[in-house]
Amino acid sequence: MRANLNWVTADLAVGGDLAYDDTAMVAQVFEIIDSGITHVLDLRIEDDDTEIWETAKIAYLRVGTTDAEGHVVPPEVFDAGVRFARLAVREGGKVLAHCHMGINRGPSMGFAILLDRGHSPIEAFDMIHAARPQAFIAYAQDALSAHAARQQRKGAPPANGEKQARLLQRHIDEVLTPSTVGRIRHLMRQTHRRDLGFTA
């Protein structure tokens, strides 16, 4: 019945969704509340826990996106999540970024939040992966692109986005893709991003 989450920092957790069994789900909600989480950021498009978290008096934001093969998470999803996480920090709260299984979407949002807090892409990736080893963080490149665009809108000097993306991808490949299947998945994702016109 343990809540499906892992702490990345003292105020940021990433994970999966609540149990479908009502008894287990209620126990998980109380565990999440007792852990000090005040803000829940839901990346699922397939479910909505508004009623649960409103009842528990936990701030809840659903920025649903799919996890289909080849999907690119739009920058506005990461922008909304980062704003929500900033609000949580200002209010002295703690954030849970989650999806269904806690492998791609939730951990990728955690990665985006760490970038916004000043961590380098590789450092942020390693922090998520160390906290939740099963995380694949498939949308790290999308989060990095959204972060670079936010920095430019704020007037920050332009970073070498393509170089950062290449270094991050090399690191991801080294950490996550020792198998042939993993390498093929990454090649498919890179090809799909190029087809959509993404250069990083």
TrEMBL record:
<dbReference type="InterPro" id="IPR029021">
    <property type="entry name" value="Prot-tyrosine_phosphatase-like"/>
</dbReference>
<protein>
    <submittedName>
        <fullName>Protein-tyrosine phosphatase</fullName>
    </submittedName>
</protein>
<dbReference type="InterPro" id="IPR000387">
    <property type="entry name" value="Tyr_Pase_dom"/>
</dbReference>
<feature type="domain" description="Tyrosine specific protein phosphatases">
    <location>
        <begin position="76"/>
        <end position="143"/>
    </location>
</feature>
